Amino acid sequence: MKFNKKAIAAGFLVVLVITLVSFFLLAGTILNFNKQSEEKQKVTLCKDSVRLRASTALSLGGGVEEIKYSPLLCQTIDKKVSGKKEDVEKAIADSMATCWQMFGEGRFKKNIFDTISSFGGDARCFMCYTILVDPSLKFGEKDSIRDLDFQQYLRTTTYRSYTPPNSKENTPAQKESYLQYLQTGGGPGYFFGFLTDQGVKPGRAYAVMYKAKRTDCGVGCTAAVLGGGLSTLLNSFTGNFVGIFVSGGAMIAGGAKLIEDALTAETQIDGIFLVDMTDPNLRSAFANHCSYVSDLAGG
Q1: Residue 254's pLDDT is what?
Q2: Parallel/antiparallel/unpaired status of strands 270-276 and 205-211
Q3: How far, in Å, CA of 286 to CA of 68, rounded?
Q4: What share of the chain has pLDDT > 70, as a percent?
Q5: What number is the average pLDDT over the span 137-163?
Q6: pLDDT, tens digit, 9 for 90 and up, residues 179-192
Q7: Rounded to 5 degrees, what are φ and ψ at 180?
Q8: pLDDT, tens digit, 9 for 90 and up, residues 249-290
Q9: Which residues contact 17 (CB under 8 A, 6 or more apart)?
Q10: Do 44 and 29 touch, CB atoms closer than 8 A?
């Protein structure tokens, strides 16, 4: 492939300008940190940097499609949750919804992690949250949330009430469940839950992760790449996607293959994963593919 050297050189001349613009646009977010909780700070900064990165992509031509100069300022959020079963379900579901918000709700057409989309463009995974479930009097070590119970919670519990864009005046607000929000809250989306047969239990740690789409994924690539394992878990390649939990017997029978397929799939849509990180096999599988950022200095 031949590159237009003049186009590339001209593009790099504007790097400084874009960097300065990025700094000033994010400065307001940074200055407001002392007015917000630590979690909200990290969420806001990540969301702003993702939007800025998506909007400052530079097309150079001459064989180079796009270069993104604005940095992603996203940091993994570590937190503990406790309380009744319903409190734990809500805390995990809220973390999933927030992770979906942080990376654009499926609105962006490109893989937000790409640096130069002509080279590779492999989808990547980012760990938005680690969640330690603390035992409490109302949710103790003998208690648990089964995968089907949590899936039912996501399907039936209202996440938000909103009025669709461009609605007529006095249009009543619509209620949207967590699952509906993850599937259609901005663009099409999906989620997978990878849990052991213990489900969600006190004393165990879980992670909420964002999986980016493939930038150069053509029509039909989802069906072609996912193969027999994951393709049966999705009810459409263009519409709404189901939420699937892989646990118990399925984890033993075909879990390793399903996990590898989920992590390397060249999908046309973004997704959210919920993973039991206390299980050593799950932790190892996802740690090899998903970024954990403890601080913005690269730790």
Answers
A1: 47
A2: antiparallel
A3: 26
A4: 63
A5: 89
A6: 889 888 788 888 88
A7: -60, -40
A8: 334 334 556 666 677 776 778 889 999 999 888 888 888 788
A9: none
A10: yes
Q: State the residue for tokens 């206390």.
A: 278
Q: What is the pTM for the complete model shown? A: 0.76
